[in-house]
């Protein structure tokens, strides 16, 4: 059976070598682009299906358009000032940040009637427990033993780290969605904000450094790449083992 897929992480797709993959420059979790633009989503699907008749060997094609109706780093600035924290540990700073964002995240969940939080195995109201677990991993450097918790984690280590981070990132995104102002930020704008001075960004960076200390362990490198967006790990790709993006040979 002929198949075609949509890829959000090109490096991972290059390793897997599926028969046909359409790489899209969209945020993780948005393989079809903007959620409120069905015409754009249809175009992405058609581009992927078109590969069934044009590709006869393992191929990765680039989708040429950015997702519309989202503000980039030059147009968007977070309207919420998290301010300095009196906490002096990564876990304490992260929990203080979560507390400031909680009312806004609650508002988004109320308006939408749902939440995407919970892939780690946590319940919708257990963001503090998830954030504490992620902070403890960053501080301890323990990449093999799951954090102690009343939560029954849905994954083992180190893959659990990726899903803990996804849950906290979802919480932050939901909080931003409730902020006033026109235009939702795109993936690049959100990443620039998170890694430009939030405690969450500092926690993820600390964990990425711990994963780097595991050498060429493929699972550690995969998790590291999923934690840090392109350009935010020493200025390059978190997937490349010790190589910044600008040093990687250009793809044909």
Overall morphology: globular
Helix share bin: 40-55%
Strand content: 5-15%
The number of helical runs is 8
Largest sheet: 3 strands, parallel
Radius of gyration: 19 Å
Count up the domains.
Answer: 2
Mean model confidence by pLDDT? 84
Uncertain runs are 243-252
Number of strands: 5
- Give the termini separation: 28 Å
- Secondary structure class reads mainly alpha
Q: Order of helices and strands, N to C? A: EHEHEEHHHEHHH
Q: Please state how the strands of the largest beta sheet are arranged side by side.
A: 1-2-3
What does this structure look like?
The structure is a single chain. It contains eight helices and five strands; from the N terminus they run βαβαββαααβααα. The chain is mainly alpha-helical and 252 residues long. The chain has helices at 10-16, 38-54, 90-112, 127-140, 159-177, 187-194, 199-212, 218-227; strands spanning 5-7, 20-23, 59-62, 70-71, 184-185. It is globular.
Ordered list of secondary-structure elements with their pairings:
Layout: E1 5-7, H1 10-16, E2 20-23, H2 38-54, E3 59-62, E4 70-71, H3 90-112, H4 127-140, H5 159-177, E5 184-185, H6 187-194, H7 199-212, H8 218-227
Parallel strand pairs: 1-2, 2-3, 4-5
Helix pairs in contact: 3-4, 3-5, 3-7, 4-5, 4-7, 5-8, 7-8
């Amino acid at each position: 059976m002929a198949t075609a897929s949509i890829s959000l992480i090109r490096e991972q797709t290059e390793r897997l070598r599926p028969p046909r993959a359409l790489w899209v420059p969209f945020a993780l979790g948005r393989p079809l682009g903007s959620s409120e633009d069905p015409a754009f989503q249809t175009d992405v699907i058609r581009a992927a299906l078109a590969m069934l008749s044009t590709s006869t060997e393992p191929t990765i094609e680039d989708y040429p358009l950015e997702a519309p109706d989202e503000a980039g780093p030059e147009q968007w600035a977070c309207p919420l000032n998290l301010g300095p924290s009196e906490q002096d540990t990564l876990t304490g700073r992260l929990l203080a940040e979560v507390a400031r964002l909680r009312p806004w995240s609650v508002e988004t969940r109320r308006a939408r009637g749902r939440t995407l939080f919970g892939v780690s195995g946590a319940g919708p109201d257990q963001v503090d427990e998830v954030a504490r677990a992620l902070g403890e991993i960053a501080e301890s450097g323990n990449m093999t033993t799951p954090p102690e918790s009343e939560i029954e984690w849905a994954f083992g280590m180190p893959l659990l780290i990726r899903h803990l981070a996804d849950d906290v990132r979802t919480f932050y995104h939901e909080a931003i969605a409730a902020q006033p102002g026109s235009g939702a930020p795109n993936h690049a704008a959100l990443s620039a904000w998170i890694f430009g001075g939030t405690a969450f960004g500092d926690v993820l960076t600390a964990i990425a450094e711990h994963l780097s200390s595991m050498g060429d362990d493929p699972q550690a490198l995969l998790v590291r790449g999923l934690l840090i967006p392109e350009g935010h790990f020493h200025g390059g790709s978190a997937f490349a083992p010790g190589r910044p993006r600008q040093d990687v040979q250009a793809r044909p």
